[in-house]
Amino acid sequence: MNKQESKKRKMTGTMKKKLAGLFVLILLAFVFLVIGITIINAKSGDKYTKQVLAQSQQQYDSTTIPYKRGDILDRSGNILATSIKVYNVILDCQVVNSNENYKEPTKKALSEYLGIDEDTVEDLLTSAETKESPYQILKKQISMDEKKNFEKMTEIPADKKEAEALSEEETVRRNNTQGVWFEEDYKRTYPLNELACDVIGFTYSGNTADWGLEGYYNSTLNGTDGRKIGYFNDDASLEQNIIDPVNGNSLVTTLDVNIQSVVDKYIEAFMENLKDGPNTDYRGAKNIGVIVANPQNGEILAMGSNDPYDLNEPRDLTSRYSDSELKAMNDEQTKEALYKMWRNYCITDAYEPGSVVKPITVASALESGSITEEDTFVCDGGEQVADRYINCAVYPDSHGTETVGEAIQNSCNDALMAIGRKMGKETLLSYQDKFNFGTRTGIDLPGEGTGILFSLDNMFDTELATTTFGQGFTCTMIQEVAAISACINGGTYYQPHLVKEIKDQDNNTIKSISGNVLKEVISQEVSADIRKYMGMSVESGTSQTAKIPGYSMGGKTGTAEKVPRGNHKYLVSFVGFAPLDNPEVVIYVVVDEPNVEEQASSTYAQYIAQAILSEIFPYLNIYPDQETDQKLQLWDEFTGTTRMDESVNGEDGNGPSGVVIDGTENPDMPEPPQDDSEEEGIDSNNAESDGITNEDAGFDEDDMEE
């Protein structure tokens, strides 16, 4: 027993010595390790620290905070275009792949609550190119409601009782749904859908636009993105700097949604009611355009055309073409179809205007002294000009001896040709320039056309004669509205415009746009004469169909034979205003090839104008200023109370069955000159160029108002 104890003690002593030696070795190694780490840290510590932090900071890199594009409002503050907050669904593949338990719950949640295909998510999580990516866009522009619903169904409730009510399985599922976050963005939306679509335009992706106000004022509406920058400070703590975005400016337009709605309503009613006409290529007319404006300052209150499109679905052609037609289109044909749908007929298309320019011709002749208001003219049914005979509208009948006012009242081509001879081509062309025909008006919309005029070199006797009554040259609707406004407002030519105020993101007005006076084209005395003559046209001439009982009005009809001559295709129109002595509103209606057997009647344009004016006069607080026992009778297709042949009966210049004849059918009438100016006239312009300069528009500085 004693021997065994002695042996045990010897073994224990040996072990202690060995352990002591091992401890010394470990201690020495540790000392050397500490010394080595100290040396490395002293020499390269900052380098390694930055590398580690840089790797950790990948998920905290700077992100963009998008700006909100400015709104477009009507004159009363109704929203025409706005941007609503939406969210892009982002998948952080690094996070999901960091734990095998995250993958299935995350895929199922994305599928169930956001409709994202599980295979799509699986591909991103396993692909060599994306499995380590912290940023993969799964879905764009989901709504706030969709975002909130996803968060509600995948997060543990903050309320303790609600959290405890979850099953253990549900709690695990929610805790394992990871790596999904939402990136803020904005989506452009148009609450009134197709209303004023030609004027408003739409945006492409990325807040860019080419059409309408969206395109013209693109840079004004756009803002500047903000930034959220994450970084580690000197203490290795995560910090953020936020640079707030600057939202875009908003536009307050001159448009009135109520007036625009009335315009659109009657255009569509006309199109629908004549859809079964002889022409199967279109419904009620090939084209219809309507402009309602304030002649005292150039503000456009409404502007519309036929077959509008939904601004929220600007590439949807299904309402215009069948499925088979769409499938048969190649890319170029589809592009052409879209451009045709998007174009603004009221400012882009140029055409021969017809007799609506007669008041402008007479105003020019009076202002230049070529005629006086006491002059008279003899209409014998037409006139031999050079090698051809040009008819008056009532040929083979005639108007006989007429005053200047009666020439307008009766829409007499013969009298206007006589007036043209007295003016001469130099004077006539100079006043076409003064009234801004042949150049852009500078309206704040892209794609404005110019039309084509004769020059001194190619205007001969025949061209001079037909130009006086609106044949042989072309213009746009907006040119006619601006010119006729100057004729009736006292002689002031205002630049037509659609935006009256620009406001910043805090609703402060940074720019006000009132009437921009470009020049004085005629005297107040001549302007008063023109109003009187156009009043005669409404009271007892070719414009009677447009009359609103109880209101003093002026107007002028137009019936232009289209090229090629003799094909029985016409563009008919009406321009009118009220009240007669102090015009507050002007309307111009163009109906291009109405879908009827006999197109040469301006009554079709007058029906639309009368219906629109009958509704907007009370709305604009334009009160009746004439005593009358007559009641308003609209076209029977609008009201069902009167027949088409009961509108007008047998006055001078009027044919049977209410058909107003004020044009001329003559296959020998000259066609408009052909050159490149029309092509140049449809180039895009925008707010940066302020439309056009006065020099580009042909305005003489001497004509500008001081």
Structure, explained:
By secondary structure, this protein is α+β, with helices and mostly antiparallel strands. A hairpin with an 8-residue loop joins β19 and β20 (570-578). The longest helix is centred in the first third of the chain and has 55 residues, at 2-56. The termini are far apart. Mean pLDDT is 87; it is low at 50-59, 640-659, 676-682 and 691-706.
Keywords:
Stage V sporulation protein D; single chain; membrane; about 35% helix; PBP_dimer_sf; PCN-bd_Tpept; alpha+beta; disordered C terminus; about 700 residues
Fraction of residues in helix:
25-40%
Question: What does the largest sheet look like?
Answer: 7 strands, mixed
Structural class: alpha+beta
Low-confidence sequence ranges = 50-59, 640-659, 676-682, 691-706
Q: How many strand units?
A: 21
Give the termini distance in whole angstroms.
Answer: 133 Å
Mean pLDDT: 87
- As a whole number of angstroms, the C-alpha radius of gyration is 38 Å
Form type: elongated
Q: Give the percentage of residues in beta strands.
A: 15-25%
Compute the number of helices: 24
Domain Penicillin-binding protein dimerisation: 65-233
Biased composition (Polar residues): 683-692
Domain Penicillin-binding protein transpeptidase: 289-613
Main location: membrane
